[in-house]
Design a protein that fits this description.
Pfam families: CREG_beta-barrel. The chain is α+β, with helices and mostly antiparallel strands and 280 residues long. 24% of the residues lie in helices and 19% in strands. It binds 2-acetamido-2-deoxy-beta-D-glucopyranose (NAG) (2 copies). The site of one 2-acetamido-2-deoxy-beta-D-glucopyranose has 5 residues, from helix 7.
Amino acid sequence: MIFRPFTTGLLALCSSTFTSASAIPHLDDQVVLNYADHATNPHSIDADSFTRPSWFTSTLMARRLLALSPSGVMSTTFPSHIPDSSRTPAEVAGLPIGLREYIADCDGVLPADLSHGDNGDPTILALRVATTFRNIGAGSNLSLEIDWWDHLSEAGAVYPGLPPSPAALPRFTLFGYLDTLPELSGAAAASLEKCFLQSHPDAKYWLPGAPAAPHASFWARLVVTQVYWIGGFGDVQQIGWMNVTEWKGVRRHGSVAGVGDGRGWEDVRLPGEKSAVGAL
Ligand SMILES: *[C@@H]1O[C@H](CO)[C@@H](O)[C@H](O)[C@H]1NC(C)=O
Ligand SMILES: *[C@@H]1O[C@H](CO)[C@@H](O)[C@H](O)[C@H]1NC(C)=O
């Protein structure tokens, strides 16, 4: 059975409320057949024999994806009243806007009295002038979307009978609130800058306190309260809300007491990554 899993995978991806293929517009059997033709040997992989990763394994994948991601799309909303003097059109009042921002998984290098213990709260370099942070300053809620779609060429085809497909690759959205970090100095500032600049060498020109920076910036962190995960097509990956205790409890190596099975995010790989040396 090659075709049914693909169809149910799409169903799961689109919405759990759909109950039949007739609910999907434009799902063309011929397209599905063509996908199968493109597979080198469609009989060698059969989605019926696949099992989804457990939710805990999916959480490890999500924490790994956060750790490897230099940016994500932050969604905020414009204030409900935009002053006449603003250059922002009055028509966008209350509308959502998604903008890509620099992030890094640097909580673990913050000083002990400030760190949340490397719990998956991303560190964000915020520019005061940027729309995202102006909206948050005006009271907007926010979320942050992170995905593995830039890795399609390494990942290749991951779903039986389907050519390389971004929709088959993981992504998630973090909900929470922005916590402005206090001004750091000396060794604390240096450790955070070193961690952040590993993935953003260009950002050294607008770090907080950088001399002659074109725009004032500050350090902030997204304190995560909910995580929505789409691992890929729903018949071979999990889709849904993560257990936030597990999200926060995972570490690079292992996890905190009471969470997980001894593995950390270093023990999983995302589609297309080479397997760990000495891994299973
Ligand atoms: C932000 O979300 C909270 C619920 O988490 C809601 O009560 C509040 O009204 C929202 N704020 C805005 C500005 O939409
Ligand atoms: C979330 O995970 C923790 C740790 O594994 C567990 O104790 C708790 O029961 C889980 N919560 C839910 C709602 O499943």
